[in-house]
Amino acid sequence: MSGKAVFLDRDDTIIQDRHYLADPDGVELIPGAAEAIRLLNRRHIPAIVVTNQSGIARGFFSEHRLGLIHERLKDLLALHQAVLDAIYYCPHHPLGSVEKYSFACTCRKPEPGLLMEAAREFGLDLAGCYMVGDKPEDMETIHRVRGKGVLIGEENSGEIKPAGPDHCAQDLFEAVQWILKDMKE
To answer: What is the pLDDT of residue 164?
Structure first.
């Protein structure tokens, strides 16, 4: 699967969304998420997290604290023999209160900056990549680089709109199953 990867949103895709999660003890895997990532691992398809973390720009937590949260996430996944190949995050927000991070950037989804950085580091063809997330912005991010998007969540299981996702799934596990099938076609 050279040149392909699956990009994953973090909150409400891999872990339960805790509004501006600042405590590593609050990390809770969504059922089936570790198994989905393990499926990608077994097929040697990079599983790469891309996440907006404006809580840093808003002063709710530091980059160090975010690092601890991501270490906790990796530890929980490891208990299920699942590994993330990388985690990319955007700490910026134009309305942030921390001056260092308070600006419009090219890495905040739906801008594709994080995907482009991963493409350089992993040698990816972004048009052959996929993104799984729970928001329309996740779909827009991957479509900006001509890849495919899978929108997850109960409310997303309806009819696919022309400018929307390439597929809708109930959860990450179902999304990864569809992606693996789509890659074979």
So the answer is: 85
Q: Which two tokens stand for residue 170?
A: 């109930």
Per-residue pLDDT, averaged over 160-180, amounts to 88
Mean local confidence (pLDDT), 20-36: 96
- Total of domains in the chain: 1
Q: What is the pLDDT of residues 66-123, one digit of tens each?
A: 999 999 999 999 999 999 999 999 999 999 999 999 999 999 999 999 999 999 999 9
Range of 74's domain? 6-130+145-176
To 10 degrees, the CA torsion angle through 47, 177, 168, 81?
Answer: -40
Instruction: Spell out where the chain has E strands.
Output: 6-8, 47-52, 86-90, 130-133, 148-152, 167-169
Question: Is residue 129 exposed (0-12), middle (13-18) or buried (19+ Cβ within 10 Å)?
Answer: buried
Active site residues per annotation: 9, 11
Separation of alpha carbons 37 and 47, rounded Å: 7
1 found inside a domain: no
Number of CB atoms found within 10 A of residue 124's CB = 22
